[in-house]
Amino acid sequence: MDTLTSTHTAATADSYRPALHYTATDTWLNDPNGLIFHEGVYHLYYQNNPMGNVWGNMSWGHATSTDLQTWTEHPVAIACDENEDIFSGSIVYDRHNTSGFGSGSVAPLVAIYTSAFKPGSMHEGVQAQSLAYSLDGGYTWTKHAGNPVLSRGSAEFRDPKVFRYDGGARSYWVMVAVEAKDFQVVFYKSDDLKNWELLSTFGPANATGGVWECPDLFPLPVDGDPDDLKWVLTVNLNPGGPNKGSAGQYFIGDFDGTTFTSASTVTEGLQDPDRLGEYGWLDWGRDYYAAVSFSDAPDNRRLMVGWMNNWEYANDIPTAPWRSPMSLVREISLQTRNGDLCLVQQPANETTTLAGSDSFRLSEATIDDAVQVLAGAAGTVQRIDATFTPGSAEEFGLILRGDGVKGTRIGVRPDEGKLCVDRRESGQTDFHESFPSMDTAPLRTTAGSYHLSIFVDRCSVEIFAQEGQVTMTELIFPAESSTDLSVYAIGGTATINSLQVTQLA
Ligand code: FRU
């Protein structure tokens, strides 16, 4: 690497606070919950410890946004009490007041959440589904007196995602939830959100290396054709991801109002460890978990958010007073690419149109077995768009948040068909033995070249490769002064067809 002298400025815990990603002001968060667009406002509820910055006292925190960029934190929406922790769930707008929680002309928002009953409570040891409702657009909530509304007597029944199924003459609420330790998604139906009837189950299938959590089910048009709908079932699992720990997988298939039939199951029953790389992963990085989608997003968009952390080290990441960011909001679509049906993810437009400045550009440059710091491209919060064509190099790519010697390496290995993220020298890594890692995802070329869109924030990288066909999301904790951006090639040449850096902070 070109020699540079740099003064090392250690990061303070709060200097990691993201510019583009949501965090709670001074508390812990995990899973996004109850995502809904209602009366012009995006509501992001989330697993929150209102009293600290490690997991515990699980309640629903709350933030809102009108542009998916800037979020306003509100008081805790649904709080734990002596009987229950409030685990993950969803919110629906009950516009026809099927639940009867409405008042006068006001239809309720209804939250369906998991009551994790505490020792000494009436349902000790059980996880069951409960309701709360809001008549003021989601700011204050009342727990339903008849909770829980759905129990299986199970200690691992959780994370209900509810949506309105409209099959013409048959229209009702559908709940997807999990029996976490059975690797099963369970489907229920209801007319009033209070009485639930079992429809079917799905799983075990594909990845089963850890408990199944936080499922979601939604239809998407294939290549934008509203007459060609497929259903996507997502289910998060922990541990057992493709690069260790928490991750989310998906299945593409059909839902007939009763049963989900997968057309993308690779293995049934318990997983085949040798085939982990063949399963459908929402994200191949280590820090994208518990992803679920918004209800009622405008224009039929399917917008998802994930928790940017991994249960392997979640409580130990070196941030304070807050802990854990959310991912960028992603728009999901189904597209045919090279004859295959692919789940494609892009940052939601609102996020990509963030005001940028100070753009650095490079085109048609060849790099030969070297690391080249790009003068004028340094930064801590940026969007990087790069297209490469392989030459003789075995690996090429970018080193970001570097200090002239070390940094986070994002590389393509064309012969192996792989994208790699190496954060072993990304900055602070020693807070947990499982954090420093070299992670990979399968990556195929498009017409001989590779395109990477990378969003760099103060403690993360989110990579959308090949126009969103493969994503990798990882936390990093670099020194504040580690701002260099370099390009590199190992063992030969590679061409940088274009490189554009937009400063976002
Ligand atoms: C997933 C999860 C959920 C549960 C919640 C508890 O990260 O374990 O299954 O509802 O977190 O905070």
Structure in a nutshell:
With 505 residues, this protein is mainly beta.
Strand order of the largest sheet: 21-32-23-28-29-30
Total separate domains: 2
Summing up helix and strand content along with how strands pair, one would put the structural category as mainly beta
Mean pLDDT metric: 95
| Terminus-to-terminus distance | 27 Å
Question: Which molecules other than protein and nucleic acid are bound?
Answer: beta-D-fructofuranose
Shape: globular
Determine the strand fraction and express it as a percent band.
over 45%
- Using the CA coordinates, give the radius of gyration: 23 Å
Helical segment count = 1
CATH-scheme architecture of the largest domain: 5 Propeller
What is the fold named in CATH at topology level of the largest domain? Tachylectin-2, Chain A
Counting DSSP E segments of at least 2 residues, the number of strands comes to: 32
List the uncertain runs: 1-7
The helix content is under 10%
Q: Kindly report the name of the CATH homologous superfamily of the largest domain.
A: Glycosyl hydrolase domain, family 43
